[in-house]
Specification:
4-stranded antiparallel β-sheet, alpha+beta, 320 residues
């Protein structure tokens, strides 16, 4: 009965999952047919020369498609500049909070007598504000130094006035691999470079600082992260089995069978025998209370081994 219930539940989940996939595809197709957005008129151009100008690219695609180009937006290699702006924004938020606290303390002290603690607090806040201001100035100097350098263009987004221009541009650059390698059309070259066209994504989904990373670079990073993750999994498996072996050895040594002739002896007699033969010390230590085991020098190793066995048992018990 339980097996049948489990089979039916699994079957329902699989059917629901397949239905969701089919429904999602139908819904995406329906939305694409009934809605118009910027990506329906915009192509993403890869492989452009570093010194590309917007007007030159607009003239090129207007000549290729015989359609007017509404706008051209270039993506530059400016990830560092974007990082500087983000860092500056975070520091500016901290500075605004600091200024608000200074205003609060100053207005609060006008109504009451200034205390030494209040004065020290305001002095500390002023010092913090000065430090944040210096950090902002330093970031601005670095950013201005980078701004003076001309950034290289890495991609372009070309928007046409009509959807026909978009379709003509995509179809013009859809050539087979033989022509792309050996017989690339001369009129499709731009600045001596072979261009690659794709449908542009939605503007809100573009992460501009990530555009400078090529597909090869992303593939290498994926391989590296996959290798590190696989290595971590293999190491965890290795240490799991190592912990299990260590635990079993400890448990076996601490739970060894005691000889039958020890069953009728008193604790004092067991202690004497254990002092003469340390291999049976666990038989004596197991008869004592935990507090007595710590006070007995002979049982210190026994207690440590039991503790290690319990710890390894807990650690290795998380895995099958």
């Amino acid at each position: 009965m339980y097996g049948l219930i489990d089979f039916v539940g699994t079957l329902v989940v699989i059917i629901g999952w397949v239905w969701l996939i089919v429904f999602q595809r139908r819904e995406v197709d329906h939305l694409n047919r009934t809605t118009v957005d910027a990506s329906d008129y915009t192509v993403r151009v890869l492989g452009i020369p570093p010194r590309t100008k917007e007007r030159e690219l607009a003239a090129h695609f207007a000549h290729i498609t015989n359609e007017a180009v509404a706008e051209v937006n270039l993506a530059f290699k400016s990830a560092k500049a974007i990082q500087h702006y983000r860092m500056r924004g975070k520091i500016m938020k901290e500075r605004i909070k600091c200024v608000q606290r200074i205003r609060y303390e100053s207005s609060y002290n006008k109504a009451e007598v200034l205390e030494r603690r209040r004065r020290r607090k305001i002095k500390k806040l002023l010092k913090e504000r000065r430090k944040l201001t210096e950090q902002i100035t330093l970031i601005d100097d670095v950013r201005k130094g980078n701004t003076k350098k001309s950034y290289d263009a890495i991609q372009a987004f070309v928007t046409f006035d009509t959807e026909t221009g978009f379709l003509n541009a995509i179809s013009s650059y859809q050539i087979n691999w033989i022509r792309s390698f050996f017989f690339y059309p001369k009129h499709l070259f731009f600045g001596g470079n072979k261009l690659k066209l794709l449908q542009a994504p939605e503007p809100s989904t573009i992460i501009w600082e990530n555009l400078e990373f090529s597909a090869t670079s992303r593939f290498c990073r994926k391989c590296l992260t996959t290798f590190i993750a696989s290595l971590a999994v293999l190491m965890s498996i290795y240490f799991t089995f190592l912990a299990k072996d260590f635990r079993e050895e400890l448990v076996k040594s601490m739970n060894a069978v005691c000889p039958d002739y020890l069953s009728g002896l008193t604790n004092s007699e067991l202690r004497l025998l254990a002092e003469q033969n340390r291999s049976i010390s666990h038989c004596y230590c197991s008869t004592l209370q935990p507090s007595e085991q710590w006070n007995e020098p002979m049982c210190v190793e026994y207690v440590k081994g039991a503790f290690k066995a319990s710890a390894m048992n807990y650690g290795a018990g998380e895995y099958p």
